[in-house]
Structures are given as C-alpha cells and as structure tokens.
Amino acid sequence: MSRPAGREPRRLTRWWRRRSLRTRLTVIAATAIAVSVFVAFQVGIELLNWELEDTAENQLRADSRVLATNAERAGLAQVQLPPYPGSGQLVRVILPDGSTRTPAGQPALPPVSEHAGRVAQGASADLMESNDSDGYFIYTLRAGDGAVQVARVADDSPITRFGLGMLLIGLLCVVGGALVGWAVARTGLAPIDRLTAAAVRVAHTRDLDADIPDEGGGEIRRLIQSINDMLAALRDSRRAQRLLAEDAAHELKTPLTSLRLNVELLIRLDRRGTLDSALPAESRTRLLNDLGVQVAELSTLAAELTDLARGDVSDESTELLDLADVVVAAATRARSRVPDIEVALDETSVWVSGRPAALQRAVLNLIDNAGKWSPADQPVQVRLRAEGASAVLEVDDAGPGIDAADVPRVFDRFYRADSARALPGSGLGLSIVQRVVDAHGGRATVARSARGGALLRVDLPAAAPPAPTARLTAG
C-alpha cells in the first residue's frame, strides 16, 4: 500500500515544530551559511571558468598572429614548424588545397571543421572553436591563401582545485555558522530561559507577589512587563476574591446565626413536647415570620453575591433600548416586592445601548435602597431625562440623607452606614449599581436631594433612537 505523498512533509513539519527555538535558530543559521557558500561557489566557478577561457583565447590569438606572420613571409608550404616539445600549444597549417601540415611528434588534432575550412578559403578572417568531446580550444586565422591554427587542451585542474578549496571552506563555514548560531541563540534566549524559569516558579509556588526582574530590551522587556502586568492583575483578582469571601462570610454569619438559633429553639421545644405551651400562637407566628424574613434575606444576599462574584455584568448581549421601559419595569418589580413602597415616575424616552436585565437590576437596587429610607407617606421619586449627550436617571427619597463621612464609601461592597445597621440589606445593592454603570461607560454619584434625603444620580451615554420602520400598504 503506497504512503500518501503529503504525509512526509507533514511529518517533517511536526518534527520541526517539536524542536526547541535554540535548535531552530542553529539549523537556520547553518542552512543560511551553506546556501550562501553554495551560491558563492557557483558564481566563483563561473567567473574562474570565464577568466581561464578568456586568457586561453587571448594567448591563442597572440600565438596565431605570430605564426600567420611567419607563414606569409615564408609561404604556407615552406614555413618552418619546430618539433613538438611534448607539451604546450598545438599548431597546424591549412594549405590552399585543404591539406594540413603539423610539427613532427605532435599529437593529432581533430579534423578541420567546415567553418575552419571557410576561413582558409577566405570566407572570414578568424574563428574560435571549442571541441568539448576532445577538450580542445582551436583558433583559426586566415594567412596567405590558407590559414593557420593554434590549439590548446582545456585544463580543468585550476577549477578542480578551486572547487575543492571552496568545499573545504564551505564545510568550515557551515560548522562555524552552526556554532555561532547556537551561541547567539543561547545568548539571545537567555532572558527567555530566565523568564520561563520565573513563570514555572510562580506556577509551582502560586506566589503572585514575586515580580519577574525587568531585564533585556525591546521585545523581551515588553514581554516581561506584560507578564508582570498579568501577575499584578492576578494579584488584584485574588485579593478581590479573598475580600469577597471574607466579607461574604462576615455578612452571612449574622443571619445564619439568628436563623440557627430560632430553628434550634423550635426543635428543642418540639422534642420536649412544650412547643404549644412555651410559645403561644402569637409568638410562634412572629417567630415564623422572622424565619421567613431571614431566609429571604439570605436568598437575596446569595443572589447578590453570585451576581457580584461573576465579575461581569451578564452574558446577555448589548442592544439599543429605551431606558424609560427599563425604569418602568424596575418600578413595577419594586412595587410587587414591597407593596408598601410608593414610586413616583417622571420619565422621558431616552435611548441607550446596553444590557436590559443588568440595567433593570441596577434601577431596582436604586429604588429598593431609596424605599428603605423614605417615610411611608413620602414616595420615592424616579426621574429620567435627556441631558446633552447623556441619559440622566435620578432616584431620591425623603429620608435622613447620607452623612458626608459616608458619601465616599456608599458604593463600596458590604459597606453600611451606622444608621443602616438595623435595616435589612447586605450592603451589595449600590455596589452592583456602580459595577453595572461602569460597564456601560456611565457614572454614578450621590448627593442630597431637595427633600433632605439622598439623591442618587446615574449618567449613561445616550444613543440615537432607531429609525422609524417604513410601512408597506398592499393595494
């Protein structure tokens, strides 16, 4: 069964990806140097070959001119041709009848070519030929009624020696390049190694307080700074989680203790059989009502803690909505939860881009907070209007107001003023309001209302209302 053609490249790619960055840099450096040496070798060979051929041609032309001059003086048939010395150039005289003369003892040259014969007949002045099969360079020059030829055997020994030298130099360069690449990679990646060791130490020890030393420059420094920023964010997140857990445990302790004591009292009296005698009907009713209130308070606190601990407003998407609809829905829910509360609405249609459920929760918390303080005969006033490029929501009550010392901490988690200790609540409502408003790019502030109570104001960025939908009437 044949192996798929694309499997080998994929296997080579997987092998390459498994290599360390140091190994990759070393291989890349060695490969780059090898390719450079190979290209330089090819260029050098071509240049050397061209130079040798040019030198040989110039020498052949010079020798052929000397021989042609002698032949014209003495005649082609009588010119003296010295015996062949055993090495060096080869000469030949082409007579007018096409026959040839060569020195005694000289090796035989290839037959006179057709183009060389035309030179002897006067068709052209000279001709340079290269016989690849026999390895000869032959130069033919017109002389008298014939021609003279000077030949030379092509000598490849300089090119061979040059090639061997370049090969040796290339191997040394590749080895040296690999060593230099490895050294450069080791030096350049040393900060990465220290950064990796520090990250591994943080992962093993879970110690987020130890920042990674800022060393190196450029990309390494930015990477270290980014990781230190991430560690700082993790520290803040862990600190926030710890504070949330501590505050939640503190807030849950009081209602849970009261609930446990009341339940234990009922269980103890029921076991003794003195429940009816020890607790009259009116006392039992009051105790059961207290239990219901405590359970409701725990449920509200658990829901607020869950909402606050998620760290985001909600998973719902942002949409274009009329904030007046959100305010009316929140007021309706507030009346259904606390029938005694009276809410006076004064709303104007203002469009915003936001999350409906989160905004309704924030408005509901504002109305609930105002309802705790507002007297029974004084309604909670809720006003919504457009002010410039903002949607302004104001909720005020006729209560005692907020002390100046408590204003900076009104939106803190679990914070409750001394005057609010006796009232129900967890101290998370306004904190949720602050988080929702911040998530929508708005601002929440507190001041004193004209009625003497607290005035909580929320400013949200307004949005353009949607274009009216065109209606099509069928004819």
Low-confidence stretches: 417-426, 470-475
- Helical/strand content category: alpha+beta
Helix content: 40-55%
Within the largest sheet, what's the order of strands? 2-1-5-4-3
| Portion in beta strands | 5-15%
Largest sheet: 5 strands, antiparallel
Distance between the termini: 72 Å
The number of distinct helices, counting runs of at least 4 residues, comes to 11
- Provide the gyration radius in Å: 51 Å
Order of helices and strands: HHEEHEEEHHHHHEHEEHEEHEE
Count every beta strand, where a strand is a DSSP E run of 2 or more residues. 12
Mean pLDDT: 77
Bulk shape: rod-shaped
Q: What report would you give on this structure?
A:
The strands form 3 sheets. Strands 2-1-5-4-3 form a 5-stranded antiparallel β-sheet, with helices on both faces. The radius of gyration is 51 Å and the shape is rod-shaped. Residues 417-426 and 470-475 have low confidence and may be disordered. It is built from 11 helices and 12 strands. It has 475 residues and is of the alpha+beta class.
Brief overview, please?
This protein has 475 residues and is α+β, with helices and mostly antiparallel strands. It is built from 11 helices and 12 strands.
Please write out the topology.
Blueprint: H1 7-18, H2 21-74, E1 90-94, E2 100-101, H3 114-120, E3 126-131, E4 136-143, E5 146-153, H4 157-188, H5 190-205, H6 219-272, H7 275-278, H8 281-309, E6 319-322, H9 323-337, E7 343-347, E8 351-354, H10 356-373, E9 380-387, E10 390-396, H11 429-439, E11 443-448, E12 454-461
Parallel strand pairs: 7-9
Antiparallel strand pairs: 1-2, 1-5, 3-4, 4-5, 6-8, 9-10, 10-12, 11-12
Helix pairs in contact: 2-4, 6-8, 9-10, 10-11
